[in-house]
Design goal:
With about 375 residues, the protein is of the alpha+beta class. It folds into two domains: about 45-230, no CATH class; about 255-360, no CATH class. Helix content is about 25%, strand content about 20%. The protein is built from eight helices and 14 strands. The strands form five sheets. Strands 3-4-5-6-7-8 form a six-stranded antiparallel β-sheet, with helices on one face. α5 crosses α8 (about 345-360). It is globular and about 60 Å long.
Length: about 375
């Protein structure tokens, strides 16, 4: 009888153990619902990745697809953005420096969705494009997805007939009520590379510790974004004394810090060593612009535009400052940034105007 009991007990424990193992395997399998084969990407359709659950247009992130937001955002014709990071299981990024992008593992995908919530008529919400940067063993690649009007899918348009990029005519309402109509530019791969280039290799821009060392309101509460990445197993560690940018819209912060943060996210990726505009005299990385000469104060422009526009920054006089002129222009021969905008960023120009007007030094 005892032998029979022990036999039943053994069978029961064996079955329970198998059931438990099946459950564990299921959880492990479902720890990331993302569909990603590094040898097959980029996929033809955005939905194939399964980055999002439910209706694709809701951009509801799937398990392990982590939202993030830099302290200041790159201006793209007033488009709103939703950004996400996904990495393969068991991999982590590493911290290199405050102003260097996180050292991401192969397989990392950075997801950036561009949309408007006030498309006219009717203040409709419409996603225009989704840009992916995917890290392969050979380096980062771009994958550009264009959304259909029904907002049910986004199709890969990188390369092929899209080699020269395209434009989409839109009308939207600004916060001040002004209606803007413009040809929103959807960049080609070459145009992406122009801004995302360092040492002639593609590289992300915004995912630097200095830019994401700020809080984000996650579904389960507010948390520092770097700490969130650590907790998700996406980041090894990071120092506690990161010198960080700020939200340039935050008027409680010092004016110069706000301006430097704005220039860092909008301009520094080109105005740095071994980048697109490294031949220019100015260096606009946040880590360098505490030096006013790097910012262009009293510095003669590489290509003076006129006798009244000789200096990049003329203290106290925005009208005689090349940077102000370029930021205020929509002419392709003069505007800065050259790519990424077709209209003037009024708030950015106003911030620069205030900062230049606050300077009182005399140029030699």
């Amino acid at each position: 009888m005892r032998k029979i009991y022990l036999l039943y007990l053994f069978c029961f424990l064996t079955i329970f153990s198998c059931k438990s193992d099946e459950k564990i395997e299921s959880i492990e399998t479902e720890s990331s619902f993302v569909n990603f084969n590094i040898d097959a990407v980029p996929y033809a359709k955005l939905s194939t990745y399964m980055f999002f659950t439910g209706d694709l247009k809701n951009l509801q992130p799937n398990t392990k697809v982590i939202p993030y937001e830099p302290a200041s955002s790159l201006f793209t014709d007033y488009a709103l953005k939703k950004r996400f990071i996904w990495m393969p299981g068991g991999t982590k990024a590493n911290y290199d420096a405050d102003d260097k992008i996180l050292n991401f593992p192969v397989g990392t995908v950075l997801i950036k969705n561009f949309y408007y919530s006030t498309i006219q008529p009717g203040n409709a919400t419409k996603i225009i494009e989704t840009r992916l940067m995917i890290k392969k063993s050979t380096g980062w690649i771009f994958a550009e997805y264009l959304w259909n009007d029904a907002q049910t899918e986004a199709e890969l348009v990188t390369g092929g007939n899209f080699a020269s990029g395209s434009s989409k005519n839109i009308s939207f309402k600004k916060e001040n009520g002004e209606i803007i109509t413009t040809d929103y530019r959807i960049p080609s791969e070459t145009e992406c590379l122009a801004c995302h280039k360092l040492d002639n290799k593609p590289i992300p821009i915004g995912v630097k510790p200095q830019n994401i060392n700020v809080t984000y309101n996650y579904p389960n509460g507010i948390k520092n974004q770097l700490q969130k990445l650590v907790e998700e197993g996406y980041l090894q560690s990071y120092p506690s004394n990161i010198t960080s940018t700020v939200n340039y819209k935050d008027t409680s912060k010092p004016l110069d810090i706000r301006l430097r943060s704005y220039l860092d996210i909008n301009c520094a990726h080109c105005h740095q060593d071994n980048a697109r505009c490294d031949y220019r005299a100015i260096r606009l990385s946040f880590s360098q612009t505490s030096n006013l000469t790097k910012l262009g104060v009293c510095l003669t422009a590489d290509e003076p535009l006129s006798p009244t526009l000789e200096r990049i920054i003329t203290p106290g006089n925005p009208a005689k400052s090349v940077m102000h002129f370029r930021l205020s222009s929509i002419n392709e021969n003069n505007r800065m940034p050259l790519l990424g905008r077709t209209i003037v960023h009024d708030e950015g120009v106003e911030l620069l105007t205030q900062w230049i007007s606050s300077l009182n030094q005399t140029c030699p």
